[in-house]
Specification:
This protein is mostly beta strands and 250 residues long. The protein has a single domain (24-229), classed as Jelly Rolls. The protein has helices spanning 2-21, 220-223; strands at residues 24-26, 28-35, 38-41, 49-50, 55-57, 62-65, 70-76, 87-88, 100-104, 109-120, 123-134, 136-140, 149-154, 157-169, 173-186, 192-198, 201-204, 209-212. It has an 18-stranded mixed beta sheet that branches. The model is unreliable at 8-22, 79-97 and 219-249 (pLDDT under 50).
Length: 250
């Protein structure tokens, strides 16, 4: 009986230690820039609220941009204890090339379905699942570990992103500037396709045609392979905030 009790105590101690050593984090999307107007709902059933620079959104939030508006998000790990869905942080937060950023273009609706990461030994395993319901997003995704997942759901498919600069439209267009994106989708004839779009190409999901990016839509710095000219922040003081490969301006 004594040995059995000791075994139980040892087993419980192991469980406690495992729980303490867990490095699973609930990641967040921080609003680092707004141009124009945007709103969000904390969950699908909540009311819309005006979005402001400095807001921090958790998984479950839905963001909508107005006409002639953009919103830039920094998605990163959040080790702070649980709190309300939206908190405030100083707009002076800095970012660098090792972080994930997303730009919502005008008239875009994006849901943050899942944002999580976990430290597993030497690697960080991330699981980001977004739902692009309308409009366009421009994403800059850092190199992911083999076990990580970064997916963007579309009305007619889902895109898997890995270490990529890409532009994705809910209406059926995918442009890849760096890296590659593997996408599964249904075309205009309701036929299912799975294809990989590599750097320098555009995919029309309606026709399944893949063509080179028009030269006029690629700034010289992007053509030269300089990712600093994409969705990359240095500071929130206006210095190298972003350059859109498609719009060609900050």
């Amino acid at each position: 009986m004594k040995q059995s009790f000791s075994a139980v105590k040892w087993f419980m101690l192991v469980l406690v230690c495992v729980g303490i050593s867990s490095n699973a984090l609930a990641d967040t999307a921080k609003v680092i820039r707004i141009k124009g107007a945007a709103r969000y709902s904390a969950t699908a059933n909540d009311q819309w609220v005006t979005l402001r620079e400095g807001d921090i959104l958790k998984a479950g939030a839905v963001i909508q941009t107005a006409s002639e508006s953009i919103v830039d998000l920094l998605v990163s790990a959040d080790s702070v204890a649980p709190s309300p869905v939206v908190r405030r942080f100083s707009p002076s937060t800095t970012t660098d090339a090792a972080q994930n950023t997303i730009r919502l273009r005008e008239n875009t609706v994006l849901a943050l379905d899942k944002l999580s990461s976990e430290q597993t030994g030497a690697d960080v395993v991330t699981d980001y699942q977004l739902d692009l319901r309308a409009g366009h997003i421009l994403g800059n995704v850092k190199k992911l570990s083999a076990a990580s997942r970064y997916e963007v759901k579309l009305p007619n498919g889902v895109a898997g992103v890995r270490g990529t600069l890409f532009d994705l439209g809910a209406s059926g267009s995918l442009t890849v500037y760096f890296g590659s994106v593997t996408i599964t989708y249904y075309d205009a004839n309701n036929l299912r396709h799975t294809t990989t779009v590599n750097a320098g190409n555009v995919l029309d999901l309606k026709t399944s045609n893949q063509t080179p990016i028009p030269a006029g839509n690629r700034p010289d710095s992007v053509q030269a392979g300089n990712s600093i000219a994409a969705v990359l922040y240095t500071r929130e003081d206006g210095t190298q905030v972003t350059i859109s490969p498609v719009m060609g301006k900050n």
